[in-house]
UniProtKB/TrEMBL annotation:
Keywords of this entry: Isomerase, Metal-binding, Zinc
InterPro entries registered for this protein in UniProt: KduI (IPR007045), KduI/IolB_isomerase (IPR021120)
Listed PANTHER family: 4-DEOXY-L-THREO-5-HEXOSULOSE-URONATE KETOL-ISOMERASE (PTHR38461:SF1)
Protein name: 4-deoxy-L-threo-5-hexosulose-uronate ketol-isomerase
Pathway annotation from the record: Glycan metabolism; pectin degradation; 2-dehydro-3-deoxy-D-gluconate from pectin: step 4/5
Gene that this polypeptide is encoded by: kduI
Catalytic reaction annotation: 5-dehydro-4-deoxy-D-glucuronate = 3-deoxy-D-glycero-2,5-hexodiulosonate
Residue numbers binding Zn(2+): H205, H207, E212, H254
CDD domains membership: cupin_KduI_C, cupin_KduI_N
Catalytic class of the enzyme: isomerase
GO molecular function: 4-deoxy-L-threo-5-hexosulose-uronate ketol-isomerase activity
Length: 287
């Protein structure tokens, strides 16, 4: 597990491009038959990727957590951006399709990841946060009928925003949030931009009570996103390519513009779970 420390905005304004990328960019999340994990001191979030191809991967706590098992004191959200996969939790198996997700509550001990087809392996994207109590583990689907242990994303949590004229026509699909999938502090969702649109989260905002991680995907090899971060009057940028993630401190804006349309997964942890608790930045004030 890779460890990242927190950073002061006063220091970040002096970082070079290389230092910005070292501190905030996760350049590769998915390795064949391996689990990659990055532990950030910013609200103690863990971001990672599990890509089982021919092997079944076991999620372990590691020395860094000083825990008997990974979710002894934590909760976790998972969204699969690859082929159909299998997540097994304490002996119970869940088939998780493309762009389906899971919330796994605190106390789940034995967690494994596998793929149904090695030629189209699953790519499980992970966000994990400290948890003070246990909420039910559920499979999250975007469409279909709910059943025991299965939650369907509500229509009101599929929000269409922006316009092609403003280059930001996008749909936000909220997976983990109060009223749909209960958690201690973790929220997760996915935003998809329509062809011809390239801007996300603009006008931008900060939220001092929560930090956020963006993971960009569905980008061709020669495409990229300019991810904007920093204080509103001290902005910086990081070039992000397919299946890379950026850690965003609570004091930082988090927005992007791509060389074409793309999709990204957002995950938030922190003081509260109020999705609308944002401090909006006026376009004229950005520098």
């Amino acid at each position: 597990m890779e460890l990242r420390t927190a950073a002061s905005p006063r220091d970040v304004k002096n970082y070079t491009t290389e230092r910005l990328r070292e501190e905030f960019l996760i350049p590769q999340l998915f390795f064949a038959d391996d689990i990659k994990l990055v532990y950030s001191h910013i609200d103690r979030i863990i971001t990672g990727g599990a890509m089982p191809v021919k092997e079944t991967l076991v999620l372990k706590a590691g020395e860094e957590l000083r825990a008997d098992y990974f979710l002894e004191r934590r909760e976790m959200g998972v969204i699969n951006i690859g082929g159909t996969g299998i997540i097994t939790i304490d002996g119970k198996t869940y088939e998780v399709g493309h762009k389906e997700g899971m919330y796994i509550g605190r106390g789940a001990k034995d967690i494994t990841f596998a793929s149904v087809n090695a030629d189209a392996p699953a790519k499980f994207y992970l966000n994990s946060a400290p948890a003070h109590m246990t909420y039910p583990t559920v499979l999250i689907k975007r469409e279909g009928e709910p059943s025991e242990g299965v939650v369907i994303v509500k229509d009101e949590n599929k929000v269409e925003l922006g316009s092609l004229e403003d280059s930001n026509h996008r749909t936000i699909c909220k997976y983990i949030l109060p009223g749909q999938v209960e958690s201690c502090q973790l929220e997760m969702g996915m935003t998809s931009l329509e062809p011809g649109s390239v801007w996300n989260t603009m006008p931008c905002h900060t939220h001092d009570r929560r930090m956020e991680v963006y993971m960009y995907f569905e980008l061709p090899e020669d495409a990229f996103v300019m991810h904007y971060m920093g204080e509103p009057t001290e902005t910086r940028h990081i070039v992000v390519r397919n299946e890379q993630a950026v850690i965003s401190p609570s004091w930082s804006i988090h927005a992007g513009s791509g060389s074409r349309n793309y999709t990204f997964i957002w995950g938030m942890v922190g003081e509260n779970q109020d999705f609308d608790d944002m401090d909006h930045c006026e376009m004229k004030d950005l520098m």
